C-alpha cells in the first residue's frame, strides 16, 4: 500500500510555491529537491507519525553551501 500525500511548500530561497508528492510508505525520510524557479536545493525532512496518521514536513535552505 502506497500512501502518497501532496504538500505545497514555499521555497526558503525565493518564496516560490512548489508542490511536492510525498511517499510515506517508507517511513520518515530526508531528501533534497531543487526549486523549479530559482534552482536552489531545498532540504526536506519528512517525519511520519503512524500512530497519529500524520506527516510532518520540515523544509529549510541547504545551509551546507555557504558562498
From TrEMBL:
Taxonomic path: Bacteria, Pseudomonadati, Pseudomonadota, Gammaproteobacteria, Vibrionales
Native organism: Vibrio brasiliensis LMG 20546
Source domain of life: Bacteria
Protein name: Molybdopterin-guanine dinucleotide biosynthesis protein A
InterPro entries (alphabetical): UCP037225, zinc_ribbon_bacterial
Amino acid at each position: 500500500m502506497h500512501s502518497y500525500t501532496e504538500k505545497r511548500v514555499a521555497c526558503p530561497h525565493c518564496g516560490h510555491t512548489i508542490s511536492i508528492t510525498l511517499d510515506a510508505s517508507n517511513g520518515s525520510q530526508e531528501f533534497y529537491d531543487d526549486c523549479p524557479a530559482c534552482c536552489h536545493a531545498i532540504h526536506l525532512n519528512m517525519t511520519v507519525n503512524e500512530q497519529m496518521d500524520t506527516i510532518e514536513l520540515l523544509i529549510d535552505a541547504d545551509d551546507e553551501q555557504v558562498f
